[in-house]
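Weekly modeling sync, notes
Attendees: S.R. (lead), two postdocs, one rotation student

Agenda item 3: backlog of single-chain predictions. S.R. asked that every request posted to the team notebook include the full sequence so nobody has to chase files. The rotation student volunteered to paste the first one in as an example of the format we agreed on. Action items at the bottom.

Example entry:
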Amino acid sequence: MSPLEPLDPADPPRIGPYALLGRLGAGGMGAVYLGRSPGGRTVAVKLIRPELADEAFRARFRAEVTAARAASGAFTAPVVDADPDGPVPWMATAYVPGVSLGRAVAAHGPLPEDALRALAAGIAASLETVHAAGLTHRDLKPGNVLLALDGPHLIDFGIARAVDGTALTATGMILGTPAYMSPEQAVAGPVGPASDVFSLGSTLAFAARGAGLFDGGAPTDVLRRVVYEEPDLSGVPEGLRLLVAACLAKRPEDRPTPRQIVGIVERGAAPLTSGAWLPPALIAMIEEAASVLAPSVTPTPPPPPAPAAPPAPPAGAPATGPTLPFPPPVPAAPPAPPAVPDPGRRRLVLFGLAGGAAALAGGGTGLGLWLAGDGGDDPKKADGKPQAGKQETGPALTDPERPLGTKTTAKPLWTAPVSEPLVQLLREGDTIVALSTKNMWAFDGTGRKKWGPLAHPAELSTGAYGGGLVATVGGGTVYGVMRQGASGLSQVLRAVRLDTGAEAWTVPLPYETSNQVSVVGMLDGRVYVDGTASTGGFDPKNPKKGFTIASGPFVWSLDPATRKGWQVILTDPEVKYPQGQLLVPSSGTSLFWASRQTDGSAQKIAALDVRTRKLLWEQPSPGAEAAAGSYDVLLQGRHTPWRDGPYVSAGGLFLHVSDRLHAVDPANGNVVWSSPEVPLKTVVASPDGKTVYAAAMAPTALAIRVYALDARTGAVRWAGSVDTLEQGGGGLPVLQSADDTVYLTAGGHLWALDAADGRARWTYRLSTSVGSGVLRAFRAGGGKVYAMGTKGLVALSATGR
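Predicted structure, as returned to the notebook:
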C-alpha cells in the first residue's frame, strides 16, 4: 500500500513552484502533500489551514520558518522553501522516505532492543539540533517520528510554538497530544527543551511496548495520569528501562539532556554487524515509501537495495568502542553566544524551567534549579595553560583535577526488600524511614522492619520530585503531606509515630487550592511547608478595595504540639509571576527565601523572620547577573536535592548558589565570602558546620569535581575529581556528610570520600530509576549510609566493611 493518497478535488494542484503529486497526511494545522519542483526535487509541502492565517499567526510562523532553517540537521527534515506571507502560508521540507513510528508499530509490533537504542539516539540527536536553534518541538510523538533506512527522523518541529500567543491559546488551551505531553505541558505551564525529553521517553516506551504509557480515556484523565501517576515500564527492555525512566522524571530538571542520552546509548550499543538497523519487515515498508520518489505517482517499487556497508575508519584512526546500528548522528553544536539575539534573557527563557507540574499557578521550585549540561568552567585553557589573570591551582591537595577514585567495592551490611521504588529516606536515631510515592516503611539499624507499608500517597506535582521533600522527621514523629479523597486534590499534613507507625493526627493545609507542596524541614520544633496557593477575601482594613485574590508562593509554619501555626503568601509587586523556594537552616530565627520570575529573571533572595513573619531584608541574588549571561552556568546550576539544615546553611550563614557559592549573613544579607568561580551543582555542610562540601560537573561530564571549603572564609581546603567514565558517566551529583565521611552519588553509583582529604574509601553500585537524574533515596548517619540497592533498601558501613 503506497503512503501517497490521491489529491482531493478541493486540494490545489500547485503550491508555489511545487506541483502536488498527492497527499501524505493531514492534521490540525493543515495538510501535507508530496510536491515536485520543476527541477525534479521531491519535497513534503505543508499548507496551513486558511482560518489560522491571521496576521499574528503569520508573524510567528515567519519567525519559526527562519529558526527551523537553522535547526535543519542530519536527522530532521530540513526546510527548503517557505512562504509565510502567501495567500495561505506554506512550508516545504525535504521528503524523507520512511514510515511513521506509529504506523510501523501498528503493523509489526514493538521494536527490538537494538532498534530502540538507535531510535533513542537518533531522536535525541534531532532534539539537540532543534534546541540549539532555540526551538522546542512540543509535539514529539510516534506520528512525528519517521523511520528511514539511515535512522529515525524528527518532523513537524516548531509549528505548535508558532501558534502560541494567538487566539488558540488566549484562553489557556493546551496544545499537543495528551498521551505524549510532559507534566508541565499538561497543565499549560512553562515548556522548554526538557519537555521534549519527557515526550521522547513516552515515545520510546510506545515503541518498546506497542502501546502508549498514558493512553486511554478522556483527555482530562490522560493528562491527570501524565501529571500524577508513575508509568508501568515493565514492558521496556531492562537495558533501556533506567534511561526511559529518567526521561519520564516529573520535574524538568531531573531529565537527561539529549546529548547525555546519545552518550548513554553509544556506551551501551552493541557492535555493528550489518547495515540495517530495523527488522526486514520495516525495511520493506520504508522501501515502499521511497517508491513515490519515482516520476510516476504510482510507480513500480524498485528492487530492495543492498544495505550500504558502513564507511571504514581512516587509516590509523583510534578505536572508538561500540557503534550505533546506523551512521552515528553528529548533532549541530549550539550556536555561539554572539549569534543569539539577547543571549542572557533568551537563555533564561529556554533553560529556566519552572519545577513541578503545576507551574501555571504561579509557583515553582525556585532559584537555581538548572539541568546538568556537558560544559563547565575550567580555570585552565584546553592547552593546559592558566588563563590571563588567574593563577595556578596551587598545592596538589587543592587541585580539582586530583584523582579521588578507588577500585575498592563496599560490602552491604544488610538489604531490606521494599515493593516500590523509594523517593526519600529519613533517619532519626536508629530508625530509618523509607518513602515511595504511595507508602512508607520503618526499619531499625539491623534492617528489621518495624512497621509498614503504611499508605501515604504523596503530593506528586513536586512532593516526590521537588527536592525529595515528601516528609521530614523530628521528635519521634514523621511529618508528611498526603493527598486524600477520590480526586486526590484534598491535602493534609500528617503526623505518624516513628516507633509504631500509628497516625497521631492530620491537619488540613491552610489553602484549599495548593500545588507543588513540599515539607521542607523543621526549625526550633516547628514544621515548615511551602508551595503555591491562591486565596480570596475582603480586607477589613481597606473595605473599599472590595474582594481581592492573592496568589503565589506560600509558607506555612505549624507547631506540632498545639497544631496551630501561621501562613503567608509572599507576593512581589515588581514581579508578575513570582516563584519562590523556602530554605530552612539548621538554627536561628530566620528562614531563607529565594524567588524569581517564571522566565528565570528578577532573581532575589530574602530572610523571613519566623517571629514577625515579615521579611528582614530582600535584595537581588548575588551572582544572578553573571549566571544569566553564562551558557555553562545556566546548564550546570544547582539542583537542590534538599532544602533544610546542612544543605542551606553552615556556621550560621546561608548557602546560596548562583554563578558560584555565596555565604550570606542572615542578619543583613551581606555576602561574607564567595567560592571560586565554578558552576556548582550541590552543596552540604559538615555536621559541625565548619566545612562546606560542594560538587560540580567536570567540563567533559565524565567526572565530578568535589570541593571542601572553610565555612568561615570560603578557602578551599581540598579538591579533586571522581571519574565516572568506568561507571557509565552521567547523573547529577548529590552530597551528604556524616561520620567524617563525604558521600557522593551520581549515575546510580555511591562513593565514600574521606572528609580530611577527599580520597575515596570505597564505591558501590546502586539501583535507581534516575541514573541520569538525582538520587534522593539516600541518607547517612550513625556510621552507616542507606540507599536504594539492587534488591531493596541497602545499608553500608562508613568503612565499607
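Discussion: group reviewed the output briefly. The chain has two domains: 14-296+322-334, 414-797.
Action items: rotation student to repeat for the remaining queue; S.R. to check formatting next week.
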